[in-house]
Amino acid sequence: MLNLTNDPHRRFNILTGEWVLVSPHRTKRPWQGKTEKLSNEQLPSYDPGCYLCPGNTRAGGYQNPQYTDTNVFTNDFAALIPDSSDGTYENGLLKAAGERGICKVVCFSPDHSLTIANMAVPAIGKVVDLWQQEYRELGGLDFINHVQIFENKGAIMGCSNPHPHGQIWAQTAVPQEVGKKTTQQLIFWEQHQRSLLLTYLEQELAEAERVVCQNEDFVALVPFWAVWPYEAIIVPRRHFQHIGQMTAEEKRAFAAILKDLTQRFDRLFDVSFPYSSGIHQSPTDGMEHPEWHFHMVFYPPLLRSATVKKFMVGYEMFANPQRDITAEMAAERLREVGVV
After folding, report:
1. Which residues are catalytic?
2. Which pTM value belongs to this model?
3. CATH no. for 44-337
4. More confident residue, 340 or 116
5. Strand runs (DSSP E) across the chain, as ranges?
6. Longest dimension (CA), the chain
7. Cα–Cα dist 168/154, whole Å
8. Of 265, 50, 301, which Cα lies nearest the Cα of 164?
9. Selection from 286, 296, 314, 212 nearest residue 254 by Cα
């Protein structure tokens, strides 16, 4: 019989239709690889050299307003622009297509020293309000079919500015990861007339082995198919498709569980925990998408300590993702650390 705690095995990701290799017996191997430098720098509440702080001039030459809670602006060096060509290119097997879009930067707080983990819940709630507003406005444009809300936190994740902020990329094409999740959720919906994630959440709540924290409207857990060491997913108890459908009560609960989960990350290794997080929700292509179930995913890279990270190399690059600690082990550690 397969022992999920000790035996090498593969786990199936119900949202993407892909597999991850799990090798729990490798957790005892010694580490002689690269370690990251741990920064103990205490950030000021205001940094005159920060291009995201209130009143400062950004790299693109524009001046920020003296904002007091959140601030959003079009990225001065956007990866997507609205007036780009939408033409196509074909030359034998070579194909390309123009892509239009809008990229925005969302400042979570005027305080340069904060992160989601140490912001007050009402302040996080204002971030959620802004995400909701931007999803509705951007998604309502006739050439936008998908709105991706995300955050890269920490230098280890390629974030060049520690000021609390995230990004929104809205574009014409539906991205590949979202396309995979649309397909898997639609297959399940057509077979059962029921949300795939809601059905999965019910099983996770019954087993309680991978649940990290929860409140009246949301559950945070380490998914059974997690790739990153302390990967987590926040799933609403109610089936809805996108952030625009969140009620006032759900927005408050979402802000609270964001703080709860990110505080647990920080306490795990007593460090401001780096991660990439992103909201996955239904495309804005004019379809109803009853199969879609809103959720938010966190991909933190830290593995054994604050200075040892997971690298996606070798087998992961050429075959498929692999992890050593199991989802159950990760969830247990995140439950145990609690919150302040």
Report:
1. 165
2. 0.94
3. 3.30.428.10
4. 116
5. 9-13, 18-22, 71-74, 88-91, 94-97, 101-107, 146-153, 165-171, 211-214, 218-221, 232-236, 275-280, 295-299, 302-305, 308-309, 322-323
6. 63
7. 18
8. 50
9. 296
